[in-house]
Amino acid sequence: MKYFVIGDYDTVMGFSLVGVPGQIASDAAGASSAFDRALDDRQYGIIIITDEIADTIREKVDKYLFSESFPLIVEIPGPSRGGVSRDLHALVNQAIGVAL
C-alpha cells in the first residue's frame, strides 16, 4: 500500500524527499484532478491531503471520509493554518485507530 499527497508546493516537495509521490494543487480544479488521479490508481491506499486543499473539494473528500473504506483519506494541517502540526505517523494512526 502506497501513499499519495495532495497539497501546496512545500508539502508535496517535502513528502517527495522521502519518496512519497504527489501532486501540487492551488485551486479546486487542481485539487479535484489530483484527487481523481489518486483514486484511479488503486496502488494508493492512503491519500494525504492538506486541510486547505481538502476544503476546496470538501464534498468529494467527505464522500470518501464517511462512506468509503478505501482509500484512507488523511487530512494534515497546511503550512498557513498556523495550527499545531503532528507527524504523519501520528495522523495516520489517529485516522485508522491502530498504531502502525
Order of helices and strands: EHEHEHHEH
Spatial order of strands in the largest sheet: 2-1-3-4
Global morphology: globular
How many discrete domains? 1
Q: What's the rounded overall pLDDT mean?
A: 85
State which percent range the strand residues make up. 15-25%
Which CATH first-tier class would you pick?
Alpha Beta
Spatial extent as radius of gyration: 12 Å
Number of helices: 5
CATH architecture: 3-Layer(aba) Sandwich
Q: How far is the first residue's CA from the last residue's CA?
A: 13 Å
The overall strand count is 4
CATH topology: Rossmann fold
- Summing up helix and strand content along with how strands pair, one would put the structural category as alpha/beta
Write out the CATH superfamily name: ATPase, V1 complex, subunit F
What are the low-pLDDT stretches, counting only 5+ consecutive residues below 50?
none
Q: What share of residues is helical?
A: 40-55%
Strand count, sense and barrel status of the largest sheet are: 4 strands, parallel
Structural overview:
The structure is a single chain. The chain has 100 residues and is an alpha/beta fold. It has one domain (2-96): ATPase, V1 complex, subunit F (Rossmann fold, 3-Layer(aba) Sandwich). 45% of the residues lie in helices and 21% in strands. Strand 1 (2-7), helix 1 (9-16) and strand 2 form a beta-alpha-beta unit. The longest helix is centred in the middle third of the chain and has 13 residues, at 28-40.
